[in-house]
């Protein structure tokens, strides 16, 4: 109930207007968001790199509702590749398709995605397409398969959400074509006819999908994370859940997959201890570093994931 309400709030314009006016809301969000400017985010990536951790930079923004904004997002994403090269940091880029126009016009979004990937190729880097809520899943996977399987673009990967019933089929298709997959549990509120309502079932499915991705990596010759940290291996296990992490580690060692042929991914500001422990153990770790002024929806999804974050927010609200 609380989670559903918060996911509703994450999309509500009135709530966005009210919350983003309070300066303490930004202070609370800045636990997860690197800053409003690209330079802030680059500094966070440098600090992660110093600990042996790679990053993926995400310019915040979603559900762009006009062509001009979609084109502006395109230019800003291209600017991120340049900033990564200039700073010499170990980071690739994550994007959301509704940010670059999927909700406006599919052709516009495809053209913008093609421009982004051309630029990524010039900078020898990789782009991960985040997965949004269920109305966008089919279109996102269609565009990914078009660009990866038909156009032969290799510097792109996608995200699979373990809470969706369909994900097993989607992973089977993705690994057949050596797709690089970030596996997460899923951050939105989905109906029970398409997604597992119970956490225990989501976790079980997550473990099953880890197994499929590891088999896929072995079948593809166990490609490893690139030396510059930009191109990820086939399985990217995105969770802060230690049981899932331990399960993945056990499976890799049983299957004989080298540590560098898998990576663990976590969100900026969450389980830094676990991020550092895995990096010290020799596993590639990548942290998702979001930045920009459009932090509201992202932050409220983080509140939805963990009630303790909400109580922290509310107690500060009443104190301020
Ligand atoms: P779970 O929710 O079971 O949490 C396990 C533990 O992690 C908790 O007990 C707590 O300790 C810690 N934790 C989790 N969330 C926390 C929070 N917000 N604050 C503090 N501690 C927290 N989703 C999606 O739908 N599309 C996407 O593209 C992505 N992309 C993505 C990238 C990366 C790198 C990560 C790590 C996650 C995503 N997600 C995502 C989000 C994902 O679907 C999921 O909502 C969160 O990762 C939380 O789930 P966990 O797997 O951490 O497990």
Protein described:
It is a single chain. This protein is of the alpha/beta class and 320 residues long. It has a single domain, classed as TIM Barrel. The chain contains 13 helices and eight strands. Helix 5 links the parallel strand 1 and strand 2.
Overall form? globular
Which H/E pattern describes the elements? Answer: HHHHEHEHEHEHEHEHEHEHH
Whole-number mean pLDDT: 95
Query: In terms of per-residue confidence, which ranges show pLDDT below 50 for 5 or more consecutive residues?
Result: none
Q: Biggest sheet, strands in spatial order?
A: 1-2-3-4-5-6-7-8
Quote the CATH topology.
Answer: TIM Barrel
Note the total helix count: 13
For the termini, the CA-CA separation is 27 Å
**What Rg is obtained from the alpha carbons, in whole angstroms?**
19 Å
Q: Please tally the β strands and state the result.
A: 8
Structural class: alpha/beta
Helix proportion range: 40-55%
CATH architecture label? Alpha-Beta Barrel
Which ligands are bound? dihydroflavine-adenine dinucleotide
Assess the beta-strand content as a share of residues: 5-15%
């Amino acid at each position: 109930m609380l989670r559903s309400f918060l996911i509703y709030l994450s999309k509500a314009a009135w709530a966005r207007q009210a919350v983003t006016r309070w300066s303490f809301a930004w202070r609370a969000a800045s636990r997860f968001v690197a800053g409003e400017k690209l330079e802030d985010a680059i500094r966070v990536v440098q600090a992660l790199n110093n600990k042996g951790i790679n990053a993926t930079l995400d310019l915040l923004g979603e559900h762009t509702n006009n062509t001009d904004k979609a084109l502006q997002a395109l230019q800003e994403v291209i600017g991120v590749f340049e900033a990564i090269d200039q700073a010499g940091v170990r980071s690739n880029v994550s994007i959301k398709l509704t940010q670059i126009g999927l909700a406006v016009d599919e052709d516009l979004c495809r053209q913008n995605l093609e421009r982004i990937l051309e630029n990524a190729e010039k900078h020898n880097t990789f782009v991960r397409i985040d997965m949004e809520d269920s109305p966008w899943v089919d279109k996102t996977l269609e565009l990914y398969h078009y660009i990866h399987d038909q156009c032969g673009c290799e510097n792109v990967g996608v995200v699979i959400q373990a809470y969706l019933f369909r994900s097993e089929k989607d992973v089977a298709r993705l690994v057949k074509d050596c797709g690089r997959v970030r596996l997460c549990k899923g951050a939105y509120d989905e109906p029970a006819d398409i997604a597992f309502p119970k956490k225990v079932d989501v976790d079980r499915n997550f473990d099953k999908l880890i197994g499929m991705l590891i088999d896929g990596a072995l079948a593809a010759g166990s490609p490893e994370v690139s030396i510059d940290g930009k191109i990820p291996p086939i399985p990217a296990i995105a969770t802060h859940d230690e049981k899932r992490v331990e399960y993945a580690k056990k499976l890799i060692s049983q299957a004989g997959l080298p540590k560098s042929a898998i990576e663990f991914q976590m969100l900026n500001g969450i389980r830094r201890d676990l991020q550092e422990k895995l990096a010290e153990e020799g596993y590639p770790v990548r942290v998702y570093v979001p930045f920009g002024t459009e932090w509201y929806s992202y932050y409220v999804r983080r509140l939805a994931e963990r009630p303790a974050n909400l109580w922290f927010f509310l107690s500060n609200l009443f104190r301020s």
